[in-house]
Structures
1.
Amino acid sequence: MFGIPMILINLVIAAVAAMIWLALNALVLVYCERKFAGHIQRRPGPFEVGPHGALQPLIDGLKLMSKQLLTPDNADGFLFWLAPILSMIPVMLLFMPIPYGPVLTGMEVNLGLLLILAFSSFNGLAVILAGWGSNNKWGVLGAARAVAQTVAYEIPLLLTVLSISFMTGTLNLSEITAQQAGFIWDWNIWKQPLAFLIFIVAMFGETNRAPFDLAEAESELTAGFHTEYSSMGFGLFFMAEYGYMVAMCSICSVLFLGGFYGPFPGIEGWWWMLVKTYALLFLMIWARWTFPRVRFDQLLNLNWKWLLPLATFNLLATALIMKL
Amino acid sequence: MELMAKVAFCVYTLVILGGSIFAVSSSSLVRALVGLITTLVGVSGMYLLLATPFMAFMQLLIYVGAVSVLIFFAIMLTRAEAGGDEGNSAPMRTYVLGLAATMAPAGILGWLVLTKPVESIAVPVEISIKELGAGLLGTYFLPFELISVILMVAMAGAVLLTWEKRGKK
């Protein structure tokens, strides 16, 4: 068709689908987050707009969009506005190689897992630039925390992912899913329980979610790195955070929970992926409203003294068992 | 497809050049770091064009994700708020010398490419990650291990340096 290669058309469709998927998830998750928070704290949560407050995220979005975009005095305007964009763009790429269903993969990439890890590391950079660029003490403090945190939590995450790819012998997410076909005990979680636990904990650290949300820490740093952002500047950070959450939970379901395969053969489909991803997302929201925020030294101690040695041990054990 | 490859090459070249010019011309260190990151992203695009996606993603993962964050850490620790000496405008002579230093390798390489054209201009074949690993642990075993020894020495040296400082206190 007009000499446009098929792969390009495919790519554009996948990109648009990823954007829609991201926006829909952000809307649903904002609602879920506020409702869960409410019920965990024994109050109904948003209730006024729509039945049971179901239209609340739309109204929130409208409110954010109609606000004024402010750049603080003496801030580095270029870096200040680069940061939210830099945090948003890679998220869409993250969804490309994830197999959401038997044919529902945006782009078949042989090194899909590596692509995801490479682009998810942009988020830390965006947080740092935001904190630095806004010429605000809280922002800089948030950025400083984000630096130490992202550098630290990336390592156990990489090590656990590596142990999965040691076991499966591939970095292609579709192949990793295919190897878990069959019954529920064929899923990787039973072969790598320790890696699963480490991945879950490191996932919280990577996505800056409570109890590891030290980069924003609203009770200490007002809002940390996004203190100075108004309107959609904040909105983009917000959407990116939910995007990273969805991406991380999807990857976790693919790596450990069998992806789009059901608990017994013959019923695979995208709905399993959705169920697993949302179960993990629920876990993340649940943890946020249950656990208090950790102190910064506790955060780093947990990572360097527990997660890193355990992940290294797990990797070595996997390599040994695979060799035998 | 060949036209697209050429377009991609031009885009990546522009990204690399633009990033590096931004890096050397900006007055604040953090902005210079952004320029450096842009250049690194452009280089990873070049790796993609050479059909080595593994190198491209590793470039992003290590340089953009880790090394640049560490550089930022260093900037923060030194409290180089806005500029330092680099922020002041330099005399004309510095610019001319800098330009000469940049153009010299470009000129030599350009002359080599133009006068002694490469024998093969075939499209590079993508090498699977398994072959890459087998190559690293087979044919190139000695250099690979030597690199890890160098890294080990660097790490031990860094630990040793900070150890001394703590002892003096």
Note: The radius of gyration of chain A is 20 Å.
2.
Amino acid sequence: MRKVRIIIFFMIVYFLIVFLQANFFSWFNIKGIQPNLFVVFVLFVCLYTNSKIGQIMGFIIGIFTDLIFSNSVGISAVLFMFIGYAGEILQKRFPKNSKITLIIMSSITTAIYEVIRVCYRYMFFSSEMRFLPFAMTLSIELAFNALLIIILYPVINKAGILVDDIFNGNDTVTKYF
Amino acid sequence: MYKDDKNGKIGFFITILILIFLVIFTNLDQNILGKLSSPFVKISRSAQNGFTNLSNKMKGNEEYFSSLESVKKQYEDLKREYERLESENQKLVVLEAENKTLKEQLNLAENYKEYETIPGYVIQKDFSNYSKVLVINLGSEDGIQTGMTVVAERGLVGYVVSVESNSSKVQTIVDTASVVSGFISNSEKSLVARGLLDTNERIKGTYIDNDVVINEGDSITTSGLGGIYPKNIIIGKVGEIVNTQNKTNRYVYIDVAVDFNNLSNIIVIKNK
């Protein structure tokens, strides 16, 4: 029952992020560049629940995101599922209860997500691809994500411990010490 | 008997003394009487003033409380009036905005009166930093179909790439996947314009014929080639010409006519 409640809570957070991305960050941005909270959110779900739930959630969130925003349904679903898998690999190698590792993990997954998306658009939609503007945009996006993680870290950490306790019996601390 | 006579005499004299005292006292000079009576009068007047003030205050308080009640009533009335006016004001603000939107849509429709159009507005913008897709409030229920051209008051916005029942997604001309064939106004020669990743205000015009003389400020309109966009819709103006060593590779930056950062009202041109 608690797990169901947490999953419902995740869906509410997802729609809150949709609202923030579509409205708040359309004016609260850096040089017109928004952060990508979807990737951070999917990574969080994967790190603190378990890989299977993370991947399924990633897939559903991806489908929703594509339906709402994108003109090609499916790419985000696959990529968010991949982030779920990447999250599993990363959490085996890095402690998730650290601000720095969370920023690094989010940066790696965001960069992979955006590079694959841009390559996909280049291949299937003949989208224009220039390295320098892309690198610039990606750098700002990663920095924005990092800043938001630093600001939200206390909330992320507390929520993470709670979720971890429900899904994994909270072995977060004992795992590393 | 003697004793009674003695008491009677004393009584008689006391009475005469009282009478004399009264006669003398009442016939004394008024000033002297005033001076004599002054301390008593002062005391009595102070007391009297005190009582009067107290009495007046009590009376005033009554008036004060009764007027407070009426002020309260007036306040309640004014409050209700204020709320009513505020509500009316809000309605007027909504009507004003609606009026403005309708006027803009009317102007839009006037600008494109040669086409059959459907007015609408933008309900969502793409969150991604790498694609520039808009969601509009018109869908298949409004007769929207994939491939229809979307324009704003100042010029071309893009075309419909997918349709749901109540909304549609529009790929804008500033999207990096967008390709528009345009005419340079003074030469009637074509170029191909593509969106750029790092800006919403410019697109890049390439494949310009070698013999074309192109100047900054030249208007670029749709050529009608490619089958998506109708002819002669304004795309923008040439903002910068970049000449390369090989003339065939030269390109221009076109300042798009539409302000994509503040775009709200659009119309969809129905295919003929």
Note: Chain A has a mean pLDDT of 83.
